[in-house]
């Protein structure tokens, strides 16, 4: 067999996964328009939407938020064209797409900024007073929580930013973070759906959460919120954040728990009578595509058990242990193997360095791979950005730490400072792609090359 380039092979599988869940491609490939009916037909699910009649005053309007919202909007513009009356899409800075109809706004992520607050106000202004003849298509992808930061009455943006910063640094899961954010917001947790009444709506979501729970995708602005103010307070208590919270934010949550503030709309609320919700792409779709690509390229493919979640360091250690186990068990002359995993781990940030969970995953993996041969790993976010950096993630192999030391870096000190970006950049292990037009969490791919003997330290 011709010798494979491990990094090229891993990159190709990663790109195949991303292509399978690309927003514009999905809508162009799976949409059908017949008269006044628009359908999306995926292999295992289908949705239909009755389009408004413009001769009777009905408008088809687009609202989008998230890192891949513009990609979905571009697909809609190609499929529905002049049927679209107008649109407003909010994207992360640098994630614009060439759109003809929909207006785009940029805002901050992962932490909201002043543009995020203005974006939420702009969405409500765009909605205005909906008509029952109107139809809204809401495009929702990962990042929407930060990009639409409309503080609840009595709060300001600084308080929301402080809360988000505390939660991200605490190690709270994205689901827990969103429970709190929904109850400090004027738009999340079904509150945008209230604003769209009496119009009909269909939300198209690319899921960036495990389980595809609608309330967790973008903090669920168009679906019922199953969580409560009391549960938001419980998250703060679990991570001992009460004393660090901005006082006005804590008072708001406490007042809500006492019934002094209106709860977010729950299942059965009239706001959802004409609202549909559709998940058009998931992590599972991406993992299946990566596996198909690897198999077609001659790899034996192995799935890494359950989805990745929990502490970044623990999951990285487990993934490498499994990769080494598979390598040790392979007979000489066996085909190359690819270990496929996906999910979203939780990175505890204690240092002042730069990096994200994928880059730190790669650095921790590099410690476990040090001195091995024929084992290579790629950990990368499907959105093309990892944490507050312009990298998607990083590679790791048996020589990563040696390259770091030759560059004058101390891997242990780098790891303690959460400065994985600097190390991977210096060693040539950084993986950069730019915005991808999708966001279904992270992929981790490990490769075992064809061997003559088991890898040794």
Structure in words:
The longest helix has 17 residues, at 312-328. Helix 12 (312-328) links the parallel strand 11 and strand 12 (337-346). The radius of gyration is 23 Å and the shape is globular. It has 16 helices and 16 strands. The strands form three sheets. Strands 10, 11, 12, 13, 14, 15 and 16 form a seven-stranded mixed sheet that branches. By secondary structure, it is of the alpha/beta class. Residues 453-457 have low confidence and may be disordered. It is 37% helix and 21% strand. The chain has two domains: 6-12 and 284-448, MOFRL domain (glycerate kinase, domain 1); 22-150 and 185-227 and 264-281, Rossmann fold, CATH 3.40.50.10180. It has helices at residues 6-20, 23-30, 69-80, 114-127, 144-147, 157-170, 174-182, 191-196, 229-238, 247-257, 283-296, 312-328, 357-369, 400-406, 411-416, 420-427; strands spanning 31-34, 37-42, 45-50, 60-65, 86-92, 102-107, 135-140, 200-206, 275-281, 300-303, 308-311, 337-346, 375-381, 393-397, 430-431, 442-448.
